[in-house]
Amino acid sequence: MSDPHPIGIFDSGVGGLSVLREIRARLPHENVIYCADSGFAPYGNRSTEEIRERSLFLSQFLLQHACKALVIACNTATAAAADTLRQRWPDLPIIGMEPAVKPATAATRSGVVGVLATVGTLVSARFAALLDTFGSDVDVITQPCPGLMECVERGELDTSATRALLDSYVQPLLQADADVIVLGCTHYVFLRALVQELAGPDVRLIDTGAAVAAQLERRLIAGGLLTLAQAEGTENFWISSEDPQMNATLQFLWHKKATFSLLPTPESHNASRSLMT
Ligand code: DGL
């Protein structure tokens, strides 16, 4: 069986490109549609209801483009909306992600793990459940990082302002003796080199992108949904922001020539759907 339909991926912005990178490495022949909700970012400061609403809208858009599976390439959106999306589309493979607390607690030698994530992720019931399950034998120090995803959205991975902001978030973890730091937001994965420099070589950094790609592959195989095409897969990029700078950020982070198309608004999307019926 061969299924050439695309995989749909969404994030609050360009952070999910760090997940797409892993998916591309593992599944080079799959076609992909990526939605960046940069016009509504950051999700980290939004209410659960708002994130759910946006996640439903983006998922509907991707399903209208005949996606065979969805990847929520965002820890914050997974915490707020994964259950809702799975209830709405029970037969669809929907891969979410959460901060890598489990492997981090297994890897620490100091007994202290640091987690960099958004406020939304850290206050979620899903994250509390993760700590209950894996955080009982080690100290897990959580650090919300307001303003950090915006640095990545602007493509500012190593400016003095980004460095100063990131340092203010990393230092408390080091002071608490963390020897493993979880990059619990897909945007922060693009700051890996800077986190490593600020934390020093003895601190191990962990993120979840490769595990998400592996899980996606397992689900596609189980559902008979892999493409058997041998050509390189295509990527289509959509965005909810009209900021022209975002195309530069896309090319900078994706390392390939690519441009965003503008996502419809929920109103125009509904109008065109009613014209079609
Ligand atoms: N990229 C998102 C995540 O993984 C969050 C960024 C935001 O606050 O919108 O959590």
What is the multimeric organization of the chains shown?
A: single chain
Q: At the third CATH level, what is the topology name of the largest domain?
A: Rossmann fold
What amount of the residues lies in strands?
Answer: 15-25%
Q: Which ligands appear in the coordinates?
A: D-glutamic acid
Question: What form results from the Cα inertia axes?
Answer: globular
Number of helices: 12
Structural class: alpha/beta
Please tell me the overall pLDDT.
Answer: 96
Using the coordinates above, name the CATH class of the largest domain: Alpha Beta
Main sheet: strands, sense, barrel: 6 strands, parallel
H and E string: EHEHEHEHEHHEHHEHEHEHEH
Total DSSP E strands = 10
What's the CATH architecture name of the largest domain?
A: 3-Layer(aba) Sandwich
Instruction: Strand order, main sheet: write it out.
Output: 4-3-1-2-9-10
Uncertain residue segments: none
What does this structure look like?
By secondary structure, the protein is an alpha/beta fold. It has two domains: about 5-95 and about 210-275, Rossmann fold (3-Layer(aba) Sandwich); about 100-205, Rossmann fold (3-Layer(aba) Sandwich), CATH 3.40.50.1860. It is about 45% helix and about 15% strand. It has helices at about 15-25, 50-65, 75-90, 100-105, 120, 125-135, 150-155, 160-175, 190-200, 210-220, 245-255, 265-275; strands spanning about 5-10, 30-35, 70, 95, 110-115, 140-145, 180-185, 205, 235-240, 260. Strand 3 (about 70), helix 3 and strand 4 form a beta-alpha-beta unit. Helix 1 (about 15-25) packs across helix 10 and helix 8 crosses helix 9 (about 190-200). The longest helix has 17 residues, at about 50-65. It is globular and about 50 Å long. The model has no long low-confidence stretch (mean pLDDT about 95). The structure holds D-glutamic acid (DGL). D-glutamic acid binds next to helix 3.
